[in-house]
Fold this sequence. Notes:
three-stranded parallel β-sheet; 7% strand; disordered C terminus; mainly alpha
Amino acid sequence: MSVHGKCTNLHFAKTVLKAADKVVFGVSACLVTPVAVADINADVETRVQSILQEMSLEQKVGQMVQGEIKWVSASDVTKYHLGSVLNGGGSFPGGKKNSSIDDWVNLADKYYKASMKTRLVFPLSGVQMRFTATTM
């Protein structure tokens, strides 16, 4: 049976789409309700407060510091509880300008693993690597 010129096929397709739309809407309405969102937010806020109470002032300050790869080693991430590390441009793994992708990945992995050695085990929020290309 050809799709072209057959009303029954078009009608069937429209019916299936309408039914699917109702199912998707019904399922999504069940999954997301204002009460569920409020409960999730309350749970997150409770967890955040719990973590903050466990942290020392040194850990809280460290989490707000973003060191630069030229000046911060992986051991500094652990020692000072650093929250993130930045490559702001002009710095390279091991000072090597022509670093490979593997060099960058290894450096990021070292920082991440160091962040996982802290007492409260905060994964590094990011190893930010910025690259700028200029064309004229």
